[in-house]
Amino acid sequence: MSDIMYPVCFDTLMNHIFKEYALYNRIFNVESIHRYEGSNTLSAFGVTMENPLGPAAGPHTQLAQNIVAAYVGGARFIELKTVQTMYGEELGIPRPCINSNDEAYNVEWSSEYRADEAMNEYIKAWFAVKLISKEFGFGDPNGFIFNMSVGYNLAGIKDPLIDGFIENLKRAGATECWQSCKEWALQNLHRFTNVDAAYVESISDEICQSITLSTMHGCPANEIESICEYLITEKKLNVYLKCNPTLLGYDTVRELLDATGFDYVTFDKHQFEVDPGMNDAVPMIQRLQKVAEGIGKQFGVKLTNTFPVTIGHGELPGEQMYMSGKSLFPLTISVAAALAKACDGKLAISYSGGADRKTIKRIFAAGIWPVTVCTTLLQGAGYNQLDALAKEVEAVDYGTVGTLDVAAIEALAEEAKSNQALHKTAAMRKKRDAKPGFQDARSTDYACKITCGNCVRVCPNRTNEMITVDGKKLIIHIDESCNECGNCACNCIEPCQPYKDRLTLFLDEARMEASTNDGFYKEGDRWGFRFKGQRGVAPLADVPAELQPIIATFEETMPYYF
């Protein structure tokens, strides 16, 4: 089906990286490549990282190529997408599943891959980053951290599928995927200048020393505590507990959203009644800190989870969606302030909740780290924003962030209420009022009216490309890794839906048949195609004349797809 992401093998992944970098000095369309030039590092869980920035568990950490793109952009703390016992069609994820017009909403929740398949993506990404960081001088090959994420209850986490996922990411060397990556590297040493056999053999298979626990809304405090204690004492992992914005209470959340221009956001009061409150959370956190300290591990919190709100204007399919981005920021930073104060500043906080270039430096300077982002990467320059964000946090004196600055966190939380630069703007409010729902406009022509390239930049899965044919720019959609999230449509200025309306490169005939898009695929020295009512398999000279230069240009300029 066209909404299924098909993982690429390690050979394909690395060939793509090498060829694109050689041709265009970019990797997966990340042109703002970050090279760490500092000397300071942060230490966490016995390992180091060059900066505390990374993509949050979500669409940017589901595929190996996404993770590589994030690293190349400047991320050094990679929060892997959450896995659970359910996967694939069982999740029932509707399409589209992302709306990022301003603040963001989604109706996805965990990895679409089975846990062992997700594990393979993370192993491939780890090995690839180890190789390219060394080969291309992007940074210290030991200067980044992977953090795994699991959910959603104790029975599920103890399931053999999830237990195997955890154990194999703790030590991946015995897995078939690890051996395959290692074998590829050793067989392709001739392609490297700065990587030799000794280096390949030295790559650590200890991928994750930490884990983030995500639980469903309504999970009782005693269940949450039991899971955390299990992960600490039995799995011997450093643990972050993902907390919910509901810790603030209904009235506070309502007041914050109203004050910051998001008064139209509606939500169910019941979730505040079933989620743990601050009176439950603080003593639980303190108990778990002691458990972790007793065996030399760290326990902290991840702030915050997304916030369930009502779908009232066709933003996405269904009845409930998860809110993130700028509307989540005042909630998350307020939770951070409350917990920091309650714990006397003695708390490890991993942050994700609307952080962007306006706030990320101050969040880190207040002692909150790592800081992960998602919504900002779904907009604007996409992964290319990471370089600027990395430079923001790297400008902070790492020696000053060992403990929480409670006063600074509280000040930022207060500012979130009053600083108009952090609120819903009048212009975006007007745009929303005019069209609050998901972008449903369609294009009847495969060519853009104005080819801006937004769909290339904002796609988390790297599934849109831009080529120039006879002086005219065209977008080519890549079916293989697209899950029809719809984010490209949200950011299209035409407007249209690029993932449905643009010519598409398919892996083979079966994938084309599963889609309604016009497009093409390569079959030996011939091309299969569906184009303006015509279809067939033929040498290039015999495909429709209008399609010939498009295929020829794509093959010539982007050989890494073949």
What would you say this structure looks like, in words?
The chain is of the alpha/beta class. It has 2 domains: 405 residues, TIM Barrel (Alpha-Beta Barrel); 108 residues, no CATH class. The strands form 5 sheets. The chain has a 6-stranded parallel beta sheet. Strands 15-16-17-18-19-20 form a 6-stranded mixed beta sheet. Strand 8, helix 8 and strand 9 form a beta-alpha-beta unit. The mean pLDDT is 97.
Structure, briefly:
The chain has 562 residues and is of the alpha/beta class.
List the helices and strands and how they pair.
Blueprint: H1 10-24, E1 42-44, E2 47-49, E3 53-55, H2 64-73, E4 77-79, E5 98-99, E6 104-106, H3 115-136, E7 145-150, H4 154-158, H5 160-170, H6 176-187, H7 197-202, E8 208-213, H8 221-233, E9 238-243, H9 250-259, H10 270-274, H11 278-294, E10 299-303, E11 307-310, E12 320-324, H12 329-342, E13 348-351, H13 360-365, E14 371-373, H14 386-394, H15 406-418, H16 426-434, H17 454-458, E15 464-469, E16 472-478, H18 487-490, H19 498-501, E17 504-505, H20 509-513, E18 519-523, E19 526-531, E20 534-538, H21 548-557
Parallel strand pairs: 3-14, 4-7, 7-8, 8-9, 9-10, 10-13, 16-17, 17-18
Antiparallel strand pairs: 1-2, 5-6, 6-12, 11-12, 15-16, 18-19, 19-20
Helix pairs in contact: 2-3, 3-5, 3-6, 8-11, 12-15
